[in-house]
Amino acid sequence: MQNQNSKPKTELKYRAYQYSIKVIEFLDTLPRDFSTRVIAKQLLRSATSIGANIVEAKGASSKRDFTNFFSYSLKSANESLYWLGLLRDAKKINNTQIEYLLNETKELANILGSSILTLKGKNKF
After folding, report:
1. CA atoms in the 13 A half-sphere facing the CB of 86
2. Where are the domains of the chain?
3. 27: part of which helix (H) or strand (E)?
4. What's the pTM?
5. What are phi and psi of 111, to 5 degrees?
6. pLDDT, tens digit (0-9, with 9 covering 90-100), for 32-87
7. To which H or E segment does residue 96 belong?
């Protein structure tokens, strides 16, 4: 039986995992030109790092360590936003393809940011 606090963590982990899968599927549809391949590799690393660091937080040895892993996830989400925006603005893809990923990345970043503030005791309540 899970306690109430573990459910949001599990949902976040699952959501980040599904996000990684969507990014991988998206990357497989991109053009194969040089600049797109370079950006795609960067996006693959940063987008999959979001979930990987959330999973890594589970094994953290302290609250500070746990918070650091969430901070790494947030940084990866922000980097992913950069690469997705670059692909969109360089007109490497159809804008409708990328909207879901941009929105999901922003939502994951917001959840992580809010979680970090809560962990640090700096929530706005």
Report:
1. 14
2. 7-119
3. helix 6-27
4. 0.88
5. -65, -45
6. 999 999 999 999 999 999 999 999 999 999 999 999 999 999 999 999 999 999 99
7. helix 95-119
Torsion of CA 79, 82, 87, 88, to 10 degrees: 140
**107: nearest Cα among 79, 77, 85, 82:** 77
Dist. CA 26–CA 84, nearest whole Å: 11
CA gap 12, 108 in Å, rounded: 8
CA R_g for the chain = 15
The domain 7-119 is placed in CATH, from the list 3.40.50.720, 1.10.1270.20, 1.20.272.10, 1.20.1440.60, at 1.20.1440.60
| Under 8 Å between Cβ of 93 and 87 | yes
